[in-house]
C-alpha cells in the first residue's frame, strides 16, 4: 500500500500487549473520571459562588471547560474503542478529532496568556484593574481565545481533507494526533508544510512570550513589596497559575519539539498521555489545592449542601 485514498483509519491504541491494554484502560478511565469531576466542580463552584465572580475565576472556569472538552475528545474514543473492540475510525471522525483537539490546545495557550495578563494588571496596576478588566473586555478576551484557536487550525483541517491521501491506514497512537497525521500525508510539498505550520510558528512564539513576560514584571513588583504578608499572598495567587503554565509548556515541548530522530512511538504516546490526560486532570487539582479562595468556596458549598440534606 503506497499511495491510497482511504475512508477509515486503524487506531493502534496505547499498547499492543493485552495485559498492558487492560491496565491502560483502567488508568485512562480513572483519569477521565477525575478530570470530569474536578473540572466540573470548578465550573459549578465559579458559577454558584458570587465571591468567585471576578475575572480570574471566570477565566479559570473557561479553562475547566477547555480541559474537560479536550479530555472528552481524546480519551472518550480510547475508552469506547477498548470496550467495543473496534479500533477503526472514519477519516471524517479522525479529522474532526484532530481539528478539535488541536484547536482546544491552541485555545488553552491563548487563555493562559490572557490569564497571565489578568494577573499582571491585578498586581502591577491594581488601581486600574477594574477599568481594564471590566466585564466587556473580559468577555471579549474569552471569546477571542475560543475563536482564535478554531480559526487558526482551520488551514490544517482544510489541507488534510483536501489531500485525503495517506501512506498507510494504521495510526500508531491512541488518537488522531495532528503531527502524526501530517507524517502520514503523501505528496507533501513545501507549500503544504508552510500552510500547515504557519499557525504553529505563531503558537510557538507569541503565547509563550506573552505568558511569561508578565511574570517578569510580577516578580519585580513582588520583590519591591514592603510587607511580608502581602508579598506572600500575592505570590500564592500567581503560584498555581504559573505551575499550570509551566506544566503545559513542558509537556507540549516534550511531545512536539523533540528532534524527529529520537521519535520513539512509545515515548511519544507517553508524552501524549501527559498532554491529553494528565494536564486536564491536574489543572483543577493545582488550582483547588493551592488556592485559598477556591478552598473556602468549596467548603462553603459543601456546608450549604449538608445543611440542605439535613433539612430534607
Ligand atoms: C469565560 O470568561 C468570560 C469572561 O470573564 C465569562 O464571562 C464567561 O462566563 C466564562 N465562561 C465560562 C464557560 O466559564
Question: Could you characterize what this model shows?
Answer:
79% of the residues lie in helices and 3% in strands. The protein is mainly α and 312 residues long. A 3-stranded mixed sheet has the order 2-1-3. α1 packs antiparallel against α2 and α8 packs antiparallel against α9. The chain starts with 7 loop residues before the first strand and ends with a helix. 34% of the residues are buried. The mean pLDDT is 87. 2-acetamido-2-deoxy-beta-D-glucopyranose binds next to α2 and α5.
Q: What is the radius of gyration computed over CA atoms, rounded to a whole number of angstroms?
A: 21 Å
Secondary-structure-based class equals mainly alpha
Strand order of the largest sheet: 2-1-3
Shape: globular
Note the topology.
Blueprint: E1 8-11, H1 18-48, H2 55-84, E2 88-90, H3 91-124, H4 129-132, H5 135-163, E3 170-171, H6 178-184, H7 190-224, H8 228-256, H9 265-290, H10 292-311
Parallel strand pairs: 1-3
Antiparallel strand pairs: 1-2
